[in-house]
Amino acid sequence: MSDHLEVGSVVEGKVTGIKPFGAFVAIDGEKQGLVHISQVAHGFVKDINEHLSVGDEVKVKVMSIDGDTGKISLSIRETVAAPEKPARPAKPRTERPRKVEVAQEKSQGFNTLEEKLKGWLKQSNEIQADLNKRTKK
User: Fold this and answer.
1) What stretch of H or E contains 64?
2) CA 60: distance to chain centroid?
3) What are phi and psi of 31, to 5 degrees?
4) CB distance 78 to 61 below 8 Å
5) What is the pLDDT of residues 106-132, one digit of tens each?
6) What is the pLDDT of residue 2?
7) Which long-range contacts (CB under 8 A, 24 or more apart) does 30-38 make?
8) With the C-alpha atoms ordered 94, 99, 100, 101, is the resulting torsion angle positive or negative?
9) Using an 8 Å Cβ cutoff, are 5 and 28 in contact?
10) N or C end of the chain, less CB within 10 A?
11) Residue closest to 76 by CA, chosen among 98, 31, 45, 103
């Protein structure tokens, strides 16, 4: 490995290849690293070809260097200031319905699950009886 190439350093490079997952960038004439598609630009990059072409001169930041394999991870995004987010207009506040008081629920006939089940069974039996009458005719 070159002594001057360190994690965190920013260097010039040249795009040598483009794949759907990223771009290969030659740095210092003998080394090559990968700029993953997520490190090409701020925001979502759908098609890397809209941002880079083979032969482009780019400034990259060294993100990591794998000592065992020698793979170099690069970022173009880290060399560019993030765009300022536009100020969102304030949304008018809407009134939320207030929670119904428990006492009010009981006065409206709050039913327990057991009571509701009895009502559903009665309704189901009535429907079944009606269907049985129609099929016997």
Assistant:
1) strand 57-65
2) 25
3) -110, 155
4) yes
5) 545 666 888 888 889 999 999 999 999
6) 45
7) 30/2, 31/1, 31/2, 31/5, 31/72, 32/72, 33/60, 33/62, 33/71, 33/72, 33/73, 33/74, 34/71, 34/72, 34/73, 34/74, 35/60, 35/74, 35/75, 35/76, 36/73, 36/75, 38/77
8) negative
9) yes
10) C
11) 45
44-71 confidence digits (pLDDT tens): 888 999 999 999 999 999 999 998 888 9
> How large a percentage of the chain has pLDDT more than 90?
44
* Encoded amino acid at 79, one letter: T
| Secondary structure element (H or E) that encloses residue 62, with its range | strand 57-65
Residue 64: half-sphere exposure toward Cβ, Cα within 13 Å: 8
Q: Which residues contact 45 (CB under 8 A, 6 or more apart)?
A: 37, 38, 51
32, two tokens: 């090559």
Phi and psi angles of residue 125, each rounded to the nearest 5 degrees, phi first: -65, -40
Residue with tokens 């809407």: 94
Q: Which of 6, 12, 78, 7 is nearest to 42 (CA)?
A: 78
